Amino acid sequence: MPTTEKKSLLVVVRRSPYGSSLARTSLEVALSGTTFEQDVGVLFMGDGVLHLLPGQDTGALGVRNIAKLIASFPLYELDSLFADETALRHHGIAQHQALPQNIEWLDTGAIAELLTRYDHIMSF
Amino acid sequence: MIYSLLVLSSPCSGQACATALHFAQAVIHRGHQIHRVFFLDDGTLTGAASMVSPQDEADTVRQWADFGVHQSVELVLCVSSALKRGMLDQSEADRYEKAAATVHPSFEIAGLGQLIDASFTSDRLITFGG
Amino acid sequence: MILHTLNGAPDSTAFRDCIRLLQTSDALLLMGDGVYAALSESCACLAIKNTGAELYLLQPDTAAAGLLTLVDSAFTIVDYQGFAALTERYTTQQAWF
User: Fold this and answer.
1) Is B29 on the interface with C (CB under 8 A)?
2) ipTM entry
3) In which domain, by residue range, is A40 found?
4) Are A13 and A26 in contact (CB under 8 A)?
5) Per-residue CA distances from A102 to A27, A54, A75, A81, A93 (Å)
6) This prediction's pTM
7) C85 touches B: beta carbon within 8 Å
8) Which of B1, B27, B129 sits opposite C97 (nearest CB)?
9) Is residue A2 one of the residues assigned to a domain?
């Protein structure tokens, strides 16, 4: 018998925004989850924290702007956002530089605990 | 238990796509049910009707197609990933006025909602990438 | 309890991030390029063993890499049925690749 209760979903983004198609795909999956009123979290890890840099200008590339997509998250009530503070330091980004401001920065132990809080993890 | 699978890699790049197939077969053999296999990003190339495998290698496209038919498992290609990669069924080929349909008939094309639905319905959601 | 699957060679970011997050209550299944981390006495193998997690290797990928007699005894080699059995025990999978 299929189970029908809602399952919580964590989307883990580990790739930089424009170097691979998986990056944007992962965010679209997260947004799809919210449109179906699923409990969705997004964790930016490793090169994935580079999504959070402001001032992305993709005009010359002819690709969609991922920073704008992330800025639209509140419209979809996608507000469980987490990021890896080790990756932040590794990439030399100060927390105040990164968007959005409501992101929760986690150390390694907190990330390990976060992974246990969700029914399913989709990692990209 | 009910499983759904998420496949992110094409049959041509690495082992993940083939591993997913063998895993799916093992899950069925152990008495579980597979609700849906959702192919996303490069994974949509798994549905390429015209892919030709070397004679001394496994025909992963054909094996997935046979699995879907024999086990009555939905094999779904994400529409946006598929279109970008030239993976079109007949209705998409007509809509976009392309020369031919390129998706194997054992696969269907649908949106990300099918992946989210699969996650609602499944006890296990297993991802294959790389 | 999480089943981590790793399809990334020892120098990959997938390997690095996986090792950081492995807990003693978790299991790790190496597959694809991940199997090279099971080479006995490699730095990668030592790092994995130090996590205290349950360790598994996917047999066909290990055989393809020529590693069946070279891997550390801390790893249990499983076939696809064994992989499926792991997913029965561990409720969530984290795929590293």
Assistant:
1) yes
2) 0.96
3) 8-123
4) yes
5) 17, 14, 14, 7, 16
6) 0.95
7) yes
8) B129
9) no
